[in-house]
Amino acid sequence: MDHKQAQSKVENLVKGAWEKVEKPLPPGAESPGSPAWIGWSSRISPPFPAGWPPDGKGSLYYYAYATGFSPSRLADAEVLGPVWARVKVDAHGKSAPQLEILAKEIKEVGIVGVRPLKKEEIAVYKAEESVVAQVFEASRKTGTKAMQAPLIRQYYCAWSKDTGVGDAIQQYHPEFFRWLGCR
C-alpha cells in the first residue's frame, strides 16, 4: 500500500463516520443567514507516525477535524471544530485501517484566520506530496537518513500552525513534534 491508497481508505472511513457525528447548531442558528449558523465540514490531516524515530512497524495516524463557515459572522476566517476522529493505518498493508472516534459532537473550539501565503510558504505547501510520501515510507523503516528533514519540518510546522489543529494532535505524537521543533 502506498500513501495515496492509504489516504483514499482513510477518506472513505471518515466520510461514513462524519455523517453519523452530531453537529448541533447553537441557539439562534435557524438558517444560513443567521449569525450563529455554522456550515460544518470535515478535513483530514497528513499522516503522523505512531512513534518517532521510525521503528519499522509502519503505524501512522490520520486525524479528522471539523471546520466551519459562518458567512454572517466571518469573512476572512473559519470556525475551528474539534479533532473528532483518527484513523490508524498500517503502511505495510497487513491490516485494514481502524477508525477511532475522539469527539461525539461537533462544536466550535476556536477561529482560524486566513491570509495570503508568501512565496516561500507556497513552495512548502507544494511539497506536500513529497513530504507525505517520505513520512509514509519512513514509517516502514528505522531511522530518518533518507528523509529531507528540513522540508518535512517546514511542512508539518506550517500545516500545524495554519490549520489550528497542531496542538490537539501534538498530545498523541510528542516525540515527532519534538523532532519537528515547531516554534
Would you mind describing this structure in some detail?
The chain has 183 residues and is α+β, with helices and mostly antiparallel strands. Helices cover 34% and strands 22% of the residues. It has six helices and six strands; from the N terminus they run αββββββααααα. Strands 1, 2, 3, 4, 5 and 6 form a six-stranded antiparallel β-sheet that branches. It starts with a helix and ends with a helix. The mean pLDDT is 93.
Secondary structure topology:
Elements: H1 3-18, E1 39-44, E2 48-49, E3 59-69, E4 77-90, E5 98-101, E6 110-113, H2 119-126, H3 128-138, H4 149-163, H5 166-170, H6 174-180
Features:
6 helices, alpha+beta, single chain, 34% helix, six-stranded antiparallel β-sheet, 183 residues
- What is the averaged pLDDT score? 93
- Biggest sheet, open or closed, and with what strands and sense? 6 strands, antiparallel
Write down the domain tally: 1
Structural shape: globular
Radius of gyration, taken over Cα atoms and rounded to an integer in Å: 17 Å
Question: Which percent range fits the helix content?
Answer: 25-40%
Compute the number of strand runs. Answer: 6
Structural class: alpha+beta
Number of helical elements:
6
Distance between the termini: 33 Å
**Percentage of residues in DSSP E strands:** 15-25%
Instruction: Encode the helix/strand succession as letters.
Output: HEEEEEEHHHHH
Low-confidence residue ranges: none
